[in-house]
């Protein structure tokens, strides 16, 4: 029942926030499969968000066909969302359907720019519909307020004790589906270069930008890259810094 509630919590947040808008995302039907456990979510955990930084994630959902309630196995026809409370301000959820049927892969595009930090335990009210021989009927509302917590972190991570040094900030999101944002802080005017390599060491992307003192970002569009692991190199006038990110399907 706990896994059932957690699965419905993710679904509930997506459908409630944009009732009439469908996502343009595509579910991952290659790597995300229901392997016998009721229902499946890929990935299992939402990456943390950062305040005032664009957030974009795609979640694949395969709803369960049944759940156990008070010792009885209940077959699910579909799920309807009643309400969800305590969403992080600035975040929207875009599902590709308004009803979720068992054994079918759906996707949810999660996007926006969070405006307030904190942990947001979502309070979700959902109604599964079951068939008792006369067509789908409500099985009663299920309330879950502990399964999913979305965390919005503070400013991007600049160390206040190193404000006189060049710093590279982690890219968000990571993994990413199409676009990820890679930040850096420079204490002086400089020309910063970004290079992206595949695991074979082949240069896949390169760009430069002149940057005055302060915090800046590369908005990296990796939509043409194949899914997999990539390495980035950020170069300023004195040295270079390396890191890794993952392009999802």
Describe the 3D structure.
- The chain has 249 residues and is mainly beta.
- It has 2 domains: 2-153, Immunoglobulin-like (Sandwich), CATH 2.60.40; 160-247, Macroglobulin (MG2) domain (Immunoglobulin-like, Sandwich), CATH 2.60.40.
- The chain is 6% helix and 48% strand.
- The chain has 1 helix and 20 strands.
- A 4-stranded antiparallel beta sheet has the order 1-3-8-7, with helices on one face. Strands 6, 10, 11 and 12 form a 4-stranded antiparallel beta sheet that branches. Strands 17-16-19-20 form a 4-stranded antiparallel beta sheet, with no helix packed on it.
- The chain is elongated and about 70 Å long.
Distance between the termini: 30 Å
CATH class of the largest domain: Mainly Beta
What's the number of helices?
1
Any idea how many domains?
2
The major pleated sheet works out as: 4 strands, antiparallel
Any idea what the CATH architecture of the largest domain is?
Answer: Sandwich
CATH topology-level fold name of the largest domain: Immunoglobulin-like
Largest sheet strand order: 1-3-8-7
Q: Supply the helix-strand structural class.
A: mainly beta
Order of helical and strand elements: HEEEEEEEEEEEEEEEEEEEE
Uncertain residue segments: 10-20
What's the overall geometry? elongated
Number of strands: 20
Average pLDDT number: 77
Strand content: over 45%
Our Rg estimate from Cα atoms comes to 21 Å
Helix percent reads under 10%
């Amino acid at each position: 029942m706990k896994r059932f509630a957690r699965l419905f919590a993710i679904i509930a947040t997506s459908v409630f926030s944009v009732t009439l808008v469908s996502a343009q995302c595509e579910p991952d039907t290659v790597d995300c499969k229901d392997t016998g456990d009721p229902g499946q979510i890929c990935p299992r955990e939402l990456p943390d968000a950062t305040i005032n930084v664009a957030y974009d994630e795609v979640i694949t959902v395969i709803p369960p066909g049944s759940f156990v309630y008070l010792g009885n196995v209940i077959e699910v026809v579909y799920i309807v969302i009643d309400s969800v409370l305590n969403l992080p301000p600035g975040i929207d959820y875009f599902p590709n359907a308004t009803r979720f049927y068992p054994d079918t892969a759906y996707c949810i595009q999660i996007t926006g720019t969070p405006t307030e930090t904190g942990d947001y335990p979502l309070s979700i009210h959902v109604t599964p519909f079951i068939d008792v021989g006369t067509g789908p009927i409500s099985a009663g509302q299920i309330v879950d307020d502990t399964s999913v917590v979305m965390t919005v972190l503070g400013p991007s991570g600049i160390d206040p004790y190193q404000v006189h040094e060049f710093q590279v900030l982690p890219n968000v999101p990571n993994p990413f589906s199409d676009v990820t944002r890679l930040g850096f802080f420079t204490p002086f005017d400089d020309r910063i270069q970004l290079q992206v390599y595949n695991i074979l060491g082949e240069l896949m992307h390169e760009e430069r930008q002149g940057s005055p003192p302060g915090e800046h970002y590369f908005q990296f569009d990796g939509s043409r890259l194949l899914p997999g692991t990539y390495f980035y190199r950020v170069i300023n006038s004195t040295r270079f810094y390396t890191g890794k990110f993952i392009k999802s399907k």
